[in-house]
TrEMBL record:
Protein species of origin: Didymodactylos carnosus
Pfam families listed in its UniProt record: TPR_12
SUPFAM superfamilies the record matches: TPR-like
Name of the molecule in the record: Tetratricopeptide repeat protein
Gene3D superfamilies given in the database record: Tetratricopeptide repeat domain
Signal peptide extent: none
InterPro entries per UniProt: TPR-like_helical_dom_sf, TPR_rpt
UniProt keyword Transferase present: no
Keyword annotations from UniProtKB, A to Z: Repeat, TPR repeat
TPR repeats (start-end): 122-155
Coiled-coil regions, chain positions: none
């Protein structure tokens, strides 16, 4: 990682020209160091695959997609690694049909190698469910979420599996309009994440946003606003 700055004051000095004051962070910045160390753990593997994964986490889907297309041409046996990243890139770009193709392609390839109940497949089933949900195919989406949940409930011996299971349970509850159950699952996931992740981690922001959405559906508008504002502050940090 090269120089990292915090954004300080932003002000418009004339029409179309803005002045932004930046403050250089040091390697001993505790907040930055904790986030960086966590990202290193979350993005393992060869550098050629770590770079597009980091770009996806930063929301730079176009750049990640360009790299992934180059990698796919010479992937060989590593094609199974690239399809999950491609589907995430297309999903972030709201290209649901292409994302769904890569999700299903990745699932087909994975099923030739792994057991049908391998915990690594849960994320794929859940992601397919999310895309189907956005396309309005709620019954089919619910089936994929429930399949993901079945896999994860067989193995809750680590925090990531437990968090994922709670998130999937919350999504399934939301699709069935059981918002109180969805809220409870999101809050359990937040409690686990808060003990594991730095406050600036984007996954925490997503969970706060989900909690806010559940509160809104239940008519708890003040709580919904508080959680959405917390999610926004994390996204800005």
């Amino acid at each position: 990682m090269y120089s990292v700055f915090r954004i300080g004051e932003i002000r418009q000095i004339e029409n179309g020209i803005w002045q932004i004051k930046l403050k250089l962070t040091a390697d001993n910045d505790p907040q930055l160091r904790r986030l960086t160390e966590r990202m290193r753990k979350e993005i393992p593997g060869p550098t050629r695959y770590r770079i597009p994964q980091l770009m996806l986490k930063m929301g730079l889907s176009d750049q990640a997609l360009n790299i992934l297309k180059i990698l796919l041409k010479n992937s060989g046996k590593e094609e199974m690694i690239i399809h999950p990243l491609l589907r995430l890139a297309y999903n972030d770009m709201e290209n649901g049909d292409v994302a769904l193709f890569h999700f299903r392609q990745g699932l087909s390839l994975a099923l030739t190698v792994w057991s049908p109940d391998d915990h690594a497949l849960a994320a794929t089933y859940s992601n397919i469910g999310c895309v189907l949900e956005t396309k309005g195919h709620l019954d089919e989406a619910l089936k994929h979420h429930q399949r993901a949940l079945e896999i994860l409930l067989k193995r809750q011996d680590s925090e990531p599996e437990l968090i994922a299971a709670k998130h999937i349970l919350a999504v399934s509850s939301t699709l069935q309009d059981r918002f109180a159950e969805a809220l409870a699952s999101h809050e359990i996931a937040l409690h686990i994440q808060s003990e594991q992740l730095p406050f600036t981690h984007p996954e925490l922001g997503k969970t706060y946003a989900n909690i806010g959405t559940s509160h809104y559906a239940l008519g708890h508008y003040s709580a919904a606003l508080d959680n959405q504002m917390t999610a926004l502050s994390i996204q800005k940090s």
